[in-house]
Amino acid sequence: MTKPIINIDDVELKPRPPAFAPSGSSAERYDAKMGYIGPRLGARQLGYNITAVPPGKRAFPFHNHRVNEEMFYVLQGTGQIRIGLNIYPIRPGDVIACPAGGKETAHQIINTGAEELRYLAVSTRLSPEIAEYPDSGKFGVLAEFPAGSAGQPQRFMFVGREGESLDYWEGE
Q1: For residues 46, 17, 133 and 109, what is the CA-based torsion angle, rounded to 10 degrees?
Q2: Is the pTM of this model over 0.90?
Q3: For the chain, which domains are there?
């Protein structure tokens, strides 16, 4: 078994993989480094990471999860969290609950402070997941499957907008 303990000082923060890095005008608003903890400890049902967001940036778009629940614990820095129609200030020591649900549970952490904002993110890892992005009208479907014959995890991801889908029988 993997050692089930890690000190957060030993978590290396890395830029996002290129497939998930913001581009174009999005890069002006979004940036973060992340240190994945769960896989290093052998976690199976929860995902956890340290997320570091530079001043003036956000790690992710405003979104809600239909399946998974998230919790954030602020380690350093200050900022705001949007939840539904509300905005709340956040600071070190704050614990934030983001249950699964509709637009009323949509959330986004924003670094409004002068220093890096770091938080521990914890979430359930149920699959498949549906995320909605109220600001842009998009949705995403993500399903993760066990490793295939090459040993790599398999992932299915689709991002779209309601009304842009194909007919079930098209091409059959």
Answers
A1: 70
A2: yes
A3: 8-126 (2.60.120.10)
